Amino acid sequence: MKTIVVTGGSGKLGSAVIQGLIDKKYRVLSLDNRHSPTLPCTQILVDMNDLGQVTSALEGADAILHLAAIPAPLGYPQSYIFANNVLGGYHVLQAASLLGIRKMVLGSSTSCYGIAWAPGPLSPRYLPIDESHPHLAEEVYGLSKTINEKTAEMFARRDGIQTISLRFSMIMTPDSYEGAGESIRKPERLQKILWSYIDIRDAVEACIAALETDAKGRAFALNITGDDTLSDRSTEELLREFYPEVPDLAGLRGSDPLFSNAKAKEVLGWKPKHSWRTQR
């Protein structure tokens, strides 16, 4: 049985992935700075800013899913968010290097492109946004995700650690769709995230697919987004009203999403199965 360590296991996505891994008969260990009374696996309290603690806790792992991070540029001083997210990512990768662990999946974010948390208006360079789109962060959260991806690339080059960074859009649970109705009807509320989301069940499947993928020591960064927009307006209407100046390279129509997930489908053999339109 393979042993998978999930950092941030008590979080929304972490706890869901842990259950998914256990259902697939993996042995799972959760690393976090707080204990969860509901997790059905062994838990170790770890300060991700302490390399010694991280290294000790990861011993015996076959693969790592790193989800521990402050999930938005809110609630903490900017310097703390940056230091916590970047140092935690480095420590997990460095510990993997020291222990000979050669497979790692990192939770990243479409915030790395800079639009979601920009302090002022910021338009994409083109649509749909694929993984080649420039990173334009103007705040520390998006920047921390970019730096973690670059750090992962370094360890892949140097040590042959397979690293797959998953750029999640807003993660939605089935019971959250009804509460999102007002935002779905008022597109200006979700403009900065480009009306993008991913159902948590599809996010879990993407994490497991990335852990099971054999990418032969390479580094990938992949958009993990849904196949439609979180809006009751057509994509054409949204672009005409909010981004008329942005080149549409794909001729987007209907409810086509503004982030491309084609690369994730190719690399992981994964595709989203759930939509707010049928699960709301």
Number of strands: 9
What's the total helix number? 9
- Identify the CATH homologous superfamily: NAD(P)-binding Rossmann-like Domain
Q: Compute the separation of the termini in Å.
A: 37 Å
Strand order of the largest sheet: 3-2-1-4-5-6-9
SSE run: EHEEHEHEHEEHEHEHHH
Q: Taking all residues together, what is the mean pLDDT? A: 96
The first-level CATH class is given as: Alpha Beta
CATH architecture: 3-Layer(aba) Sandwich
Total of domains: 1
CATH topology: Rossmann fold
- Given as residue ranges, the uncertain stretches (5+ residues, pLDDT < 50) are none
Q: Structural class of the helix and strand makeup? A: alpha/beta
Largest sheet: 7 strands, parallel
What portion of the residues fall into strands of 2 or more residues?
15-25%
Radius of gyration: 18 Å
State the helicity in percent bands: 25-40%
Task: Tell the overall outline.
Answer: globular
Protein name: NAD(P)-dependent oxidoreductase
Organism: Cohnella thailandensis
Keywords: NAD, Oxidoreductase
Domain NAD-dependent epimerase/dehydratase: 4-219
Provide structural commentary.
The protein has 280 residues and is of the alpha/beta class. The protein has a single domain, classed as Rossmann fold. The protein has nine helices and nine strands. The strands form two sheets. Strands 3-2-1-4-5-6-9 form a seven-stranded parallel sheet, with helices on both faces. α1 packs across α6, α2 crosses α3 and α3 packs parallel to α4. The chain is globular, with a radius of gyration of 18 Å. The model has no long low-confidence stretch (mean pLDDT 96).
